[in-house]
């Protein structure tokens, strides 16, 4: 034996350690993967050995391999083994490995609960520390729930090292288990004033994280943080606090006012740039919240901007970046103060650092004005040319468009310039934003009528040069522009100089390589052009009839190519147009004048409509939109959907244009008439008002635009000088002329301005003298009046932080006095290993200081004794409260609940009081009153409740129950503890023959359902009996350690207004099943329920029954008697019930491994039976969960829709199920060594499913 | 919150990866690769912040990195962290490594990634900054190392001897290491405190 150990340790020496592994990998550069796979094989061998050192070494290597990207989840179980080593060295290796590769889906995590709990309470602070660190990385909701109490205890550990870790990890616990936040918060708050700076910093850290998500709940802490801010010297803490204030100020403007002074002082005094920067940031936040603020704040803004300028001018790129970032925040509310630094920001556009350029770009958005727009865009265009990466270039492109189009093209004075810019942007290679340019082109040419001629000319050129855009496969994004170009040319064909040439361009064979939707638009607009040419020819000289003939022929020649298109839309449109042209040609041969009729196909005014206008159309009187027009409910095409799609967006005119050329023309004309009439009467439809158009054409400046001077054939190719440049010069001239004319035409112009929207204060410079060269046919975006910006909408319902939106000021309710111990938790197999102990453990928690009492109690439960103890306790609490009414008390779990809202109410008004001391706050006296009253209310309750007096006030009463409850929990605890021990043994047992088959099985046994889609919460507790005073819920469980015992847990809930006392529980024993009564009691005596119930309170008691045979279900009759004591009377009441001992309640969830399971089935000792369930529609995993939960089975293996399950009765009968589901039929084949037990269990399963 | 801490060398080889949110191994490698790609193409004298929002979920996130000799130290953080504060934290981290390994160089990180994890665990816990005071960090790390040594005791002696022998037997170590072993130089920054 000794030799073996020696040999083992010598072997171990020659095992590869981490360094060897790394070295090996470096030596095998060429065949790294192969080398590593041999290493992994070695590791697998090492993991099979019993020596923990070898295992630890293997796990350590695995951690390294995990970093290299190898999946090591198969070793999860071994990691748990190493974690549970008693040596710190190995434990640490285990925990680090776990923190690297465990996550919520790791099934073995549930095995770690006890180990972690043990480590948390280890005497060595480093064991605890390592466990906390590890847990912070892989905490799951289950772990959080089971360990919350342990961690909370650690928050008051004597060692600051542990305290700070425990405080930090609480944040993770809150995230996973939000119910723990309220009970833990008082202690967390306490830690803000911890003597150790590290702990303090950790507490600040946690509260800041919490407050960042739900700031309003933490407003009441503002005074405390304010104190910290003015006293702390730790920059980390200061930064966090200042950031927190930044989140709080928007909610409480008074806070902002109070903050400004200390923050400005800090800004002046600190030398740490990080602190300075955060101060500036928070001052900005304050200023934003005070936007309407007082004049003296301009000084603060100036200070901020000035400091930021220093940052931006700094040679350190980091400071420059942050300066710009903060500057953009100021920009939103105080654009003027930023604009004065335009020079600096433009300089940053040339910076070599892309991050800085992007930030500067953001700033530019708010800095443009009518005066400088052209200049800035010109600069940006230069950058576009120079830019290397497509990302940056795309960013520039979107920024240019954003800047130009912002607030309805507010800053654009010359739209020809803008159109040329757009055209220039199409030269960009590989941009993704073709559609953006296209929509701008459409928008501008539709809404700015005067620009149409120019735009059409430009678009015609674009179409003509389409090959430049589409030639390169890389430039595919940009061909979207052709969509806009084709549509504009077709729609506004009257402005075309040479429609024939454009038509030809539309029909080039090359077009067929474009995306389908663009070709479709091409077809439609070719038809429009054709109509235009026909019309022009008929009205004009007969000489052009030949051209008409030519183009008809051209269409007939080219269209068949498109008729064969793979795209349906193109095909359909092309064939329509083709037939139409053929028909027209036929008519024309007969010399029929068709031009007008053909044009009518496409006539009709196109007007921009506000995006939401359709919604605002009032429903005509007598029209019931909900009534059926025809009795045909089957075809429920939503009628209101369609028109909206047609009218909402003027930017997508293709919808309005999808008319079929074939449609009966008369019908069309009729509809059009009707529509025009309707539009005329519709106040929401913006009409083309001839007056405004006329007035605008009179506007000075338009005549001066020398459209003809532009060399239209080249702008796409000019390399250096871009065509838009000339507009910059022209604009200068125009403005000067305008100025000269302005004086004369002053009055007239005012009339023109009528068309402009309320552009208000945003125009930062006095630029009213710059009149736009073109008017935008502006649509103000209408919104329903009640559409308030609500921040609720944009909250993501899946946001994990949402669960933490918990009101912390509300006093802790009764049920919350301690961390919730879920006796009936939704969805759990009742005996999951961690849980049972968790329960026992948690129950222990609330009595840190009552340890002595507990022991006594276990020995003896004499009533008198307890009474006196209760009194003692009462006194103690009172004492505490009397001394420190405002403070969250140490024994929060015990007293906090019973304590009236005094402390928190006091706090809330404290906040008001504290804030009111700000110079502009409300008068002090008003605020001070409640503040003074609140603390007073706390001690008030104390005098009445002298020990020994009958409970007089509500809080008193609830307090009374405390010790009682504690007692009952002690009572309960005995069992779980014993169970725990057995569990442990058992678990060890599993572990051993578990190596072979991976941990997969385990997960299925307990946890899977929780990970898959949620199932409605299930409770083991069923209603036992209920009347107007009391409600009883019960749960029956077999007792693992004693094959003849069953534990019945009953929750008693007081439903009356009075106090329930002297509850006595009794059942009529049968031969087979007997209630275990205290020693010395007769077989018919009652068992006293060990607690009393104040109104609305519930508590749980457990009763033990001994059973002899468990193969049959059984019902026992019972009675509960109790005294209801209300204020002036007391009555004696009783309630009968029937306890139903099902066979399932004799079963105990017992894990089983597939090999053992197979052996069991092979042994042939079992008798079979089967049952079929029809019409079960629930998902399979829900079904399994139900069986696991209600009938105490565990899943051995699950393959698709087939699962094997196992359970064991308290007397050791094996029950095996094979559950299969096909469609809605579930068949269960079962085997058991006791056939009547099996029959009954199956019946019960059947019943469960028939009930749901 | 800190979302992830990555250390990789000039060639993108990971030297330490610590994710405070769970990702599959493949995703982790992809994140490391992408981060390396983003960070490595930046010039030396540009700012140390990168808006790599898509990388690790959410546009709220930023990459904050520092480049020392052959190593990049990258922290991915959300907006609750102070940018300059994190830069300083990286500095503290590197200085701590320098103290613990005595003139740290890339090789130390290559061969002792477990120790680096231990040091990091004393600074950042579950994505939150635990300690920023270098002396405190070093005290705790040393105390734990001492514990480890005492546990190894006599039993550890042969193992140590053998590993010494192993190292002696491999004179080629330096030859294999062609990635510059330049020790990390710690530039003097204006102190944070």
UniProtKB/TrEMBL annotation, chain A:
<keyword id="KW-0597">Phosphoprotein</keyword>
<dbReference type="InterPro" id="IPR058898">
    <property type="entry name" value="Mu_AP3"/>
</dbReference>
<dbReference type="Pfam" id="PF06375">
    <property type="entry name" value="AP3D1"/>
</dbReference>
<dbReference type="GO" id="GO:0010008">
    <property type="term" value="C:endosome membrane"/>
</dbReference>
<dbReference type="GO" id="GO:0016182">
    <property type="term" value="P:synaptic vesicle budding from endosome"/>
</dbReference>
<protein>
    <recommendedName>
        <fullName>AP-3 complex subunit delta-1</fullName>
    </recommendedName>
</protein>
<dbReference type="InterPro" id="IPR017105">
    <property type="entry name" value="AP3_complex_dsu"/>
</dbReference>
<keyword id="KW-0007">Acetylation</keyword>
<dbReference type="GO" id="GO:0048490">
    <property type="term" value="P:anterograde synaptic vesicle transport"/>
</dbReference>
<dbReference type="GO" id="GO:0006896">
    <property type="term" value="P:Golgi to vacuole transport"/>
</dbReference>
<dbReference type="InterPro" id="IPR010474">
    <property type="entry name" value="AP3D_dom_metazoa"/>
</dbReference>
<dbReference type="InterPro" id="IPR002553">
    <property type="entry name" value="Clathrin/coatomer_adapt-like_N"/>
</dbReference>
<keyword id="KW-0333">Golgi apparatus</keyword>
<feature type="compositionally biased region" description="Basic and acidic residues">
    <location>
        <begin position="653"/>
        <end position="679"/>
    </location>
</feature>
<feature type="compositionally biased region" description="Basic and acidic residues">
    <location>
        <begin position="956"/>
        <end position="968"/>
    </location>
</feature>
<dbReference type="Pfam" id="PF26171">
    <property type="entry name" value="Mu_AP3"/>
</dbReference>
<comment type="function">
    <text>Part of the AP-3 complex, an adaptor-related complex which is not clathrin-associated. The complex is associated with the Golgi region as well as more peripheral structures. It facilitates the budding of vesicles from the Golgi membrane and may be directly involved in trafficking to lysosomes. Involved in process of CD8+ T-cell and NK cell degranulation. In concert with the BLOC-1 complex, AP-3 is required to target cargos into vesicles assembled at cell bodies for delivery into neurites and nerve terminals.</text>
</comment>
<keyword id="KW-0963">Cytoplasm</keyword>
<dbReference type="GO" id="GO:0098830">
    <property type="term" value="C:presynaptic endosome"/>
</dbReference>
<feature type="compositionally biased region" description="Basic and acidic residues">
    <location>
        <begin position="797"/>
        <end position="871"/>
    </location>
</feature>
<feature type="region of interest" description="Disordered">
    <location>
        <begin position="713"/>
        <end position="1005"/>
    </location>
</feature>
<dbReference type="GO" id="GO:0006623">
    <property type="term" value="P:protein targeting to vacuole"/>
</dbReference>
From TrEMBL, chain B:
<dbReference type="InterPro" id="IPR000804">
    <property type="entry name" value="Clathrin_sm-chain_CS"/>
</dbReference>
<dbReference type="Pfam" id="PF01217">
    <property type="entry name" value="Clat_adaptor_s"/>
</dbReference>
<dbReference type="GO" id="GO:0030659">
    <property type="term" value="C:cytoplasmic vesicle membrane"/>
</dbReference>
<keyword id="KW-0813">Transport</keyword>
<dbReference type="GO" id="GO:0030123">
    <property type="term" value="C:AP-3 adaptor complex"/>
</dbReference>
<comment type="function">
    <text>Part of the AP-3 complex, an adaptor-related complex which is not clathrin-associated. The complex is associated with the Golgi region as well as more peripheral structures. It facilitates the budding of vesicles from the Golgi membrane and may be directly involved in trafficking to lysosomes. In concert with the BLOC-1 complex, AP-3 is required to target cargos into vesicles assembled at cell bodies for delivery into neurites and nerve terminals.</text>
</comment>
<feature type="domain" description="AP complex mu/sigma subunit">
    <location>
        <begin position="1"/>
        <end position="147"/>
    </location>
</feature>
<keyword id="KW-0653">Protein transport</keyword>
<comment type="similarity">
    <text>Belongs to the adaptor complexes small subunit family.</text>
</comment>
<keyword id="KW-0472">Membrane</keyword>
<dbReference type="InterPro" id="IPR022775">
    <property type="entry name" value="AP_mu_sigma_su"/>
</dbReference>
<dbReference type="InterPro" id="IPR027155">
    <property type="entry name" value="APS3"/>
</dbReference>
<dbReference type="InterPro" id="IPR011012">
    <property type="entry name" value="Longin-like_dom_sf"/>
</dbReference>
<protein>
    <recommendedName>
        <fullName>AP complex mu/sigma subunit domain-containing protein</fullName>
    </recommendedName>
</protein>
<dbReference type="GO" id="GO:0006896">
    <property type="term" value="P:Golgi to vacuole transport"/>
</dbReference>
<keyword id="KW-0333">Golgi apparatus</keyword>
<dbReference type="GO" id="GO:0005794">
    <property type="term" value="C:Golgi apparatus"/>
</dbReference>
<dbReference type="GO" id="GO:0006886">
    <property type="term" value="P:intracellular protein transport"/>
</dbReference>
<keyword id="KW-0968">Cytoplasmic vesicle</keyword>
<dbReference type="InterPro" id="IPR016635">
    <property type="entry name" value="AP_complex_ssu"/>
</dbReference>
